[in-house]
């Protein structure tokens, strides 16, 4: 795909104050693969994932490509069934063996597709960690949270029991769990949703990951708590120099925190760019439709939303050409050919024959509001 | 009935009596102590009063546990609140018997969050939509069949295509349309929508919200619209009520709440919404409100928000603020509302909040 897309983050100001910062990779051999300078951390190319359900082939991911620079935060946005979670699970090696995966996922130069489970297990929870949507279901309800974190710490380091305990408390402080020492001995049901998600993040950080995948990690939380957790993720990303893939359906959230955005529809990336570039010049009609459909504080009461008719396509019977064609107001016969994802403007890629507002074509995007 | 002003939104418009008048609603649930969690009484709704006029939408926002769903259920008497009055179409629902209550419920319908959970999975769409008509003895089999088709058309589902399907053969958005068809079948005056679009994808959510709006215009419906998304509530409501830990923090015209929030909690909620400017692409990065809501079993003394409030003073711990009207139709329950300068124990010359009052600094 197109060349460099450097969104390199200013490496974080590494505040070693407060004494809660992770003692970088204690007790673990430094990663042998240093990663050549300028090399992206993750390169996904032509990723396809197909499931078979009831004899029908479900194409969950259809040729997804992106690259992620170390230490940056990227958002993958899309609706249910857009393939955003499935593609990240492919990256984590968490898909069932019945899933047909093709294409390439390189993490730090190493191909992950077809990697033996033994190696994958070492990577998973180590260099690559994941935080899921529902913290209540991701934690073991019968174990004290301290034990759950200590378990993760011991799995990914050779610290002894005492060392692991100290490290676990340290991690709880790092994620700003109030009264960490006391909470250490509590069960998940005694914590609020936001606190549980902090615990999940602490567990994810136990292996000192270089990539954290946050799959709708704040969706189940209240807005005020969501803001707290997102702030925490950004802070950790900067302090620990970790890359973050945040999977979300919330455009506003992606715009507020990510440096780079990939918009997915029906298993492919339909638009991607650095965040501000993308939101200032939305090209793909689908992204545009999403923006028009989210409630906005500056709209008048009882104003109508811009409506896109229809529903996302059936993944086992994708329409010919552009998957958004049946719902798109700009669609023509040209769209029967699938548009490739191409870098049309510097760093701005989209897959559309009739981009909104790019050069001649339509008169802007009509119908801002009624 | 009350003439509700279309644009400025039913600010106590007219002199007629409201469609729904709730006064001093209290709902409490006893919980047992278990597994290290404290037992006691959950103060789910404490002394909440509001009105809804015909054709008006009242939005209710609040965090998880703020009592917004309990409030909705108290209104439809499911279960009956502990105390207070709910007057609907002039009838006090707290006092009427079962038969009269059923009669009243015909005019107040509910749409729930989970579109699959609220429909019987074994019934077909036509049966589902017919059920409320049958339950209230509406017409005969023939007229009901016609009515069902009419209703499905109204909610945007082609009866010939979808009539014979069962819920699992529908998408979430379509299920929610069926639930809405059921709710409007008996031409109610009020629809209580409890997070009715929260589980839907953005594009489908917009379709369903527009359907609500269309029905409001065509049937002069009133809504009690409950959601956690303040931006959404603002766009669909004439007036907005902000709840915190079982109490009303603020209630007023939605435009006013957004332009000039009076309660620090409302301001914090507005600040924590991530949003993006569609023109410049610039994002409004949320400002996090510290802390978490305290337990409704053991709410703080005085003002329940004081433990997280940047403006809290000694007085807030000692005395519970009352809901006071500070702007026309705009009430707030706060000792130090945002239209006043920041309170300071020893008075300092600084007013961080926009107010044409004193001092040099005037933040926008």
UniProtKB/TrEMBL annotation, chain A:
Topological relation to the membrane, as annotated: Peripheral membrane protein
UniProt cross-references to SUPFAM superfamilies, sorted A to Z: P-loop containing nucleoside triphosphate hydrolases
Coiled-coil stretches noted in the UniProt entry, renumbered to this chain: none
Assigned GO CC terms: plasma membrane
UniProt-listed InterPro entries: AAA+_ATPase (IPR003593), ABC_Ni/Peptide_Import (IPR050388), ABC_transporter-like_ATP-bd (IPR003439), ABC_transporter-like_CS (IPR017871), Oligopep_ABC_C (IPR013563), P-loop_NTPase (IPR027417)
Any one biological process term the GO annotation gives: peptide transport
Subcellular location: Cell membrane
A molecular-function term among this protein's GO annotations: ATP hydrolysis activity
Entry keywords, A to Z: ATP-binding, Cell membrane, Membrane, Nucleotide-binding, Transport
Boundaries of every ABC transporter domain copy: 44-291
The keyword Cell membrane is assigned to this record: yes
Chief place of localization: membrane
The UniProt record lists the keyword Transit peptide: no
Family: Belongs to the ABC transporter superfamily.
Protein name stated in the entry: Peptide/nickel transport system ATP-binding protein
Automatic annotation (TrEMBL), chain B:
Alphabetical keyword list: ATP-binding, Nucleotide-binding, Transport
An example molecular function term from Gene Ontology annotations: ATP hydrolysis activity
CDD domains xrefs: ABC_NikE_OppD_transporters
Region spans: Disordered: 343-364
Gene Ontology process terms (BP): peptide transport; transmembrane transport
Pfam families: ABC_tran, oligo_HPY
Signal peptide: none
Compositionally biased intervals (Low complexity): 351-364
Superkingdom classification of source: Bacteria
Gene3D superfamilies per UniProt: P-loop containing nucleotide triphosphate hydrolases (3.40.50.300)
ABC transporter domain: residues covered: 20-270
Protein family per UniProt: Belongs to the ABC transporter superfamily.
UniProt protein name: Oligopeptide transport system ATP-binding protein
Organism per entry: Geodermatophilus ruber
